[in-house]
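Teaching assistant here, posting this on the class forum so everyone can see the example we discussed in section. The complex has two components, and the goal was to see what a joint structure prediction looks like when all of them are supplied at once.
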Amino acid sequence: MLRALAKILKVLNSETEPSQISLAFCLALITGFTPLWNLHNLLVVLLALIIRVNLSTFIVGTVVLSGVAYLLDPIFSWIGLAVLTPNPLEPLWTALYNIPLFRLAKFNNSIVMGSLLVSLALFFPTFILANLAIGRYRENVLQWVRKSRVVEALTASRFYSLYESVSGWGR
Amino acid sequence: MRRWIRWQGLVAFVVFVASVCLLWFVFADLAVEKVIEGAGTRIVGAKVELDEADIQLFPLGITLRGLQVTNPNEPMTNAVEITRIAGLFDGVELLRRKAIIEEMSMEGVRFSTARKSSGAIKGRSKGEKSEKMSLKRILGTDLPSFVLPKAEEILAKEQLQSVELAKALPAEIKEEQKKWKKELAELPGEERIEEYENRIEKLKEMRKTGPEGIFRAAAELKKLKQDIESDLNKLTKAEQDFNSTMKLFKERLAQAERAPVDDANRLASKYSLDSQGLANLTRLLFGPRIATWLERGLSWHERLEPLYERVKKEYGGDAEVVKPLRGKGLEVRFREYKPLPDFLIREVKGSVSTRGGDMEGRIENITPDQDILGKPLTFLFSGAKLSLLQSFRVDGTLDHVSRLTASDRINLKLRGYQAQQLTLTDSDAFSVKLAKGLADLDLSSIVSNGAIDTEFAAVLKSAKLEVNTSVESGPVVKAISSTLTGVSSFSLVAKVSGNLDDYTMKLSSDLDRVLKDSVSAQLKSQIAKLEQKLRADISERMSGPIQQAKSSLGDFAPLGDELEKRIQDFISLQKEALFKKSSTGLPIP
C-alpha cells in the first residue's frame, strides 16, 4: 500500500524543473479561478496531463486558487459583465452564443468570462514571476528547509525511504 | 518536443474522463433529486421532497417518483403530492443548454395529503399570523362580538361629556351672576334717574326766567335728552347681552335634561350592531373564510412566479441580463437565431385525484421565458359525473408574453358539489359548519398590472348548517344560530377589487335580509332594555347637577328683571318728562 502511494507521489512530483512547476501553476490559475465544471477546464486538464508539468503543483494550485476565487467572484462578475454587455462586441458574442460548443462552455456567464480573462491575462506574467521565485527559493531557502526538524523527521521515515527507492521511475 | 510531451498523460486523461462519466452515471440521479428539492423548497418556502429521480439516456428523459410539496401554511400537510412524473428531453436542444420537454405526464396527483413529518423550514413561517392581520384590512372592520355588554360596564368605560358639562353648569351660572351683579352696579339706575329729575326741575325753573332762560333751557334740554338716550342705549345693550346669556344657559339646561336619552341611544348603538352591520351579517360570518382562501391563492400565485416570469435587466441592444434560477454570476443572453426558452415544458398531461373523483387536465407552455416562446401558460382541468361532483372545470392563463400587458386569469365552474363538514366560519362566539349541501360555485379572477378583480358566486341547496355556540353566548348569537339552522338554501356573492397589496372585499347574500330581520328583532328588545338602563343610570348622575343649575338660573333671572325695570323707568322719563310741547312749538319739560 505504502509502495503504491509512493509510486503515485513519484509520478506527481516527477517534473521538477522551474519552468515545469511554473507552467503547472499557471494552468492551475485557469482551473482554480474559473468554475471547475466548465468545458474549457477539460482542455486545461488534458494539457496538464500531456505536457510534462508538475502535477502536484497543478492539483494543489487548483485547490488553493479555487478558494481565492470565491473572494474574487464579484470582481470577476464585474469584469465579465463589462466585456459581455457593450454593444460593439455584441455581433461577436451573438455569433458565439449560437454555437452549441460555446453555449456549453457557458461563456455568457459573467463569472466564467471574467475569471477566464483574468487567468489568461495573468498567465504569462505568473509564469515569469514563478520561474524567478523558484530559482531564488532553490538558491537561498531550500538548504535551510532541508535542515529543519520537520523535514529531517520526514526524510527519516519509512515512507520516504520507500519513495527514494522508487525514484527514477517514470523518467 | 518529446521531452515536453508525456504521452501517458493521454491515457490518464481518458481514465479521468471515464471516471467522471462513471461518477456522473452513478450520482447524476441523486444530484438531480437534490437540485429539484433545493429549487422547489426555495420557491415554495416549505420542504419539497422527492423519493427518486431517474435519468435515462436512450431516449434522453427523466422520471421523478414520490414528489411531495409541503403546504407552507400547514407544515404537516402536502399541498400536492404526485406519484410519478415522466418526460423526454429534446437531446439536440440540450447541447444548446436548453431543457425542452415536449410532453410530460403526471400520475397520481393528489392534494392535501398528510405528511409523516413537518415540512416547515426555518425562518419561513408566515402562516396564520399574517392571514389574521390582513382580514381587518380586507373586510374593513373588526368582527363584532355579538354579545351586548351591561350598562354598568359601558358607563365604567365611557367618559360622558354631557355629565361633565352638566356638573360645570351651576358654577358657570354663578360666575356669570357675579359678573352681572357687578355690571348692574355700574349701569345707570335710581341715582341717575334722580339726577335727571333734578335737572328737569332746574330746566323748569330756568324757563321761568324769561326768553334768555328759555333758550338756555332748550340747549340744556337737548343735552339732557342725549344723556338719557345714551344711558337708555347702555341699558338696552346690557339687556340684549343678558338675554343672550340667559338663552344660552337655558339651552344648555335643556340639553342636559335631554342628555340621558341621547347618550343612551349613542352608547347602545356603539356597543351593538348598527344598521350597516345588520344589513351585511354574511360579510362578517363568511368573509374571513373567503378572505383566507383568497390570500392563500395569491400567495401561491406569488410563489410560483419564477416558473412563468424571469427577472430580467436590459442593457440596450438585444442583450439582456438574467439571474439564473440557480447558480452564481449573471447570464447575458444574446439574440438567438432560433429563439427558444432555456427551460420549457410544452405540455403536461395528468390525472388529479380528489375526494370528489378523478379529473383529467393539462398545462401548456411552462417556461419563465414566455416572451421568447411567444405563448402564455395555459391550464385546463375538468371532470364530469364524479362521485361527489356533477361537473368541474378550471381553466386559466398566465400571460406574461409582454411584461407591460401581463395578466393572469382563472375561471372555475363547479356544479353539484356534495359538500360535507365544511367549516364556513369559526369565531369566538360561534362556528358555522356546512354539514351537507349541494353547491354550485363560480369563480372568475384576473390579476393584471398589480391589481386584482375577482368575482365569486356560490349557490347552496339542500343545505344543513350546523351552528355551535359557546355557553356564554347571548340571545343575539342564539337568534343567528336558530336562523342559520333553519336555512336550507342560500346564495353568496363576493367581489374583490383593488391593488394586490390593498384590496377590499364586498360580500352579499340573500341570507342578509333573513338574518337582519331575525337579529334585529332580538337586538331590538335587548337594545331597548340596555337603553332604558343607560338612560336611568345617566339620569341619576345628571339629576343633581341639573337641579343645581335650575336653582342657579332661578337666582340669575331676577337680574334681567332689574334691567327691564330700569329701562322702563328711563323710557317713562323720556316720554313723560321730555316730549311735551308748548303752544309755541318748543319742547318744554
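For the discussion questions: The mean pLDDT of chain A is 83. Chain A touches chain B through 31 residues (CB under 8 Å). Think about how each of these relates to the inputs above.
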